[in-house]
Amino acid sequence: MSLAGLAIVLSLIGGVGLAYLTAYVRWQPLKVVLSRLPSLGFSVPVFWMGLLFIQLFAFSLGWFPATGNQGFSSLILPAVTLAIPSAAVYAQVLQRGFQGVWKEPYIITAYAKGLTRAQVQARHAFKNAALPLLTLIGLQVGNTVSGAVLVETIFARSGVGRLAQEAVLRQDIPVVLAIVAVSAAAFVVVNLIVDLLYPALDPRIAHTPKVS
C-alpha cells in the first residue's frame, strides 16, 4: 500500500502542477507543448515505462536500485512509473476545467477589481476548475491499486500487488478475498473523503433550501 499511496500523492502533485502551469503560461508555443504532455503520459504502457526507467535510472545512471525493497530509494522508480498515467489524466481534466472558467463573469469581475493573473487563478479559477478533478481522483484510486500488481512485478517488489498475483497463481482464495476487501475499503474511504470535500470547493452543494 505504500507504493500506491506514494503514487497517488505524486500523481496529484504532478498532474495539478502541470495543469496549473499550463493555464498560467501565456507564451503559446510553450503552452501547446505543456498541453500535449498528458496525452504522452497515458498513451505509454506502464510496463514499457517501468523497463525504460530501470534501464535509464538504474543501469545507466545508477541513481536508484532496479529491484527490491531497499529503503525509500527503491520506492521512487515504481511510484513514479505508477503515478505518470494518473497524473496525465488529472492534468488533462484540470486543463479543460481551466479553459472552461477563464471566460466566466466572476473571473472578468476579479480582473476588473485589479487582481493579477496569478491571484485570479489561485483564488477563483482553480477552485472551480478542480471540481471535475475530485470525482476523477476517487475513480483513479482503483486504477492505481490495480496497476500496483504489474508495477511490483516489474520491479520485483514485495507488496500487496505482488502478493495478489502470487495468490491468484496459487489459487489461494482466502488471501485473494482479503486483498479485495482491503482494496474495496480503501476505495470507499477515498470516495467518501471526495464527497466531503465537494462542499468546501463548491458552496452551492452545501446549500440546503428552506422548505416552506
Automatic annotation (TrEMBL):
Lineage top rank: taxon: Bacteria
Organism per entry: Pseudomonas amygdali pv. eriobotryae
Keywords from the UniProt entry: Cell membrane, Membrane, Transmembrane, Transmembrane helix, Transport
Spans traversing the lipid bilayer: 43-63, 75-93, 133-155, 175-194
Record membrane topology: Multi-pass membrane protein
Main location (coarse class): membrane
GO terms under biological process: transmembrane transport
Protein name as catalogued: Nickel ABC transporter, permease protein
Recorded family membership: Belongs to the binding-protein-dependent transport system permease family. OppBC subfamily.
Pfam family of the protein (one): BPD_transp_1
